[in-house]
Amino acid sequence: MKPQFEYYLESAGIHCKYAKGKPYIEGGEFHEYDEILLFIDGTARFLSNGITHDLRPGDMMVIPKGQFHQLVVDNAEEYTRCVLGFIRDDEIRPLAESVMTEIAIITPPEPQIPSAFARLLEAMESKASDTDKLLFARATLIELLFERRYDQDPAQIRAAASTSPVQRALTYIDTHYAEPLTLESIAQALYISPSTLSHRFRKEQNMSVYRYLSKKRLFAVRQCVAGGYALTDAARMCGFNDYAGFFRMYKKYYGNAPSQSQIHNNPLPADAFLRGE
Fold first, then answer.
1. Which of 115, 141, 15, 104 is nearest to 58 (CA)?
2. Of 31, 21, 108, nearest to 69 (Cα)?
């Protein structure tokens, strides 16, 4: 099922989306950009390392770049959201760095937050040019960041410290992903059985241990290449000993073949991976 409706705009440093219907990507993801998402309607659950939250209309999610997360949508036909994704350029970097420090859910946000999103939607639906709409989206982003920066007592949900096997597994993978990990080796390091880890991980994270590990490694490769490493070296450094296997997996997740220029020149690509939520 395709989205029932969608407004989508993008430039080199920002994208803005208002959509209803099935997400492009199901399952968790890492972003190479920051994201602010307003949940408007439907039934969905937000998952990340340390957070499990049943979303309510009006909840706003603050998702810094590189933070793994996923939205489990129960009724895709009703799933409605407005999303602002952005790269921290020189103008907004100090403000963004003070706000985008950890995943947080603001529930419910102060009235000015949904009001800002409502004005953004009006602009997207107007007859203004795409250039003007993107300027408005950027102004809205700055407003939202400013509100978050100076909200002295936000009602929000943050990741809680946990010693559960799944949370320990996530932390272990994030630390050791470059090593030749298997379900068995991870379970052994955590002193639990592979079957218990597999069952609980899939139940709590809505995906397999292997899928999470793969996504973590792919994201790490892109970060290494963006930092100046050759693609083959980056793949090896991030745990891919078989380049052909890395190539197939990259193409499966990102929708195109890996290339050094593609990663460098498209930090905010308008593809299915980016448009996941």
1. 115
2. 31
Report which residue type is found at 63: I
Least confident stretch, 10-14, 51-55, 137-141, 259-263: 259-263
Two structure tokens written together for 130: 């795409």
User: What 3-state class would DSSP assign to 6?
Assistant: strand
**109, 38, 14: which is closest to 277 by C-alpha?**
38
Cis peptide before 108 (omega within 30 of 0): yes
Q: How far apart are CA 37 and CA 255, in angstroms?
A: 23
Domains in the chain: ranges and CATH? 5-158 (2.60.120.280), 165-265 (1.10.10.60)
Q: Encoding tokens for residue 5?
A: 């409706």
How high is the mean pLDDT of the chain? 87
Closest CA to 272 of 99, 61, 25, 37: 25
The DSSP code for 179 is S
Query: Are the C-beta atoms of 173 and 214 separated by less than 8 Å?
Result: no
Residue 261's pLDDT is what?
A: 55
